[in-house]
Amino acid sequence: MNIVETSGLGLRTRRGWVYRDVDLTAASGELVALTGPPGSGRTSLLLTLAGRFPHSHGELRRRGPAALGQVAGVHEPDPTLTVAEHITERLLLLGPVPRRRRRLVPVAAVRARRAYRRDAYATAVAGAGLTDAPLDPDRYGRDLTPVERQVLGLVLASLGGPSLIVADDVDAGADRPEREWMWGALERLADQGYAVVASARAVEPGVAATAHRIGDPAVPALALPAEPTEVPA
After folding, report:
1. CB 43 within 8 A of CB 168
2. Based on C-alpha coordinates, what's the Rg of the chain?
3. pLDDT tens-digit series, residues 166-189
4. Three-state DSSP class for residue 34
5. Helical H runs in 128-228?
6. CA atoms of 141 and 78, how far apart (whole Å)
7. CA 213 to CA 203: how far, in whole Å?
């Protein structure tokens, strides 16, 4: 089932196009990779897909809730909290899954939200399928590497049991082994039934992702024109 679909999607401001003419679908269990040159509007498009940023042209249809992973400058770890504290705080804020929604939420997310009084970190990481994650539960947000920030973002995003998970610049600041691990982690999330859309400079060879390139060099896009508008989950 398609979780997100766009047709002719675009965002134009007084300064010009941020992104334009985007036709994209992401289904349950599918990993979609957005690539494009700097300034192509990848971040703005990801935020639009997740319902956190507007669009001015075309159509966007999304089924079910969306969650943000790491998006620099928009959705980042708290520098004063440890990894484990981030997870415990998120679980407390989410609370138990309402009975009427349990069939719609991945089993792993339900288990993690039940376990916040026990070993929340281990349950959350296992629920996201990232037991081999390069992540120290006692490490503070301010000390996380770019890859660790991405991993924490994916774990936190999975806790709410969304239909769609988006993450930005997943290969930024990563060496080749880290990039290979990160794409593998994204594939595992998709295998659990999430629709996953991630932006990157390029897709690692052999990754089972549907690549979608945006940004026409003849029509340069703009940087984010304004702060994104938060939409309640």
Report:
1. yes
2. 17
3. 999 999 999 999 999 999 999 999
4. strand
5. 146-159, 176-191
6. 6
7. 11
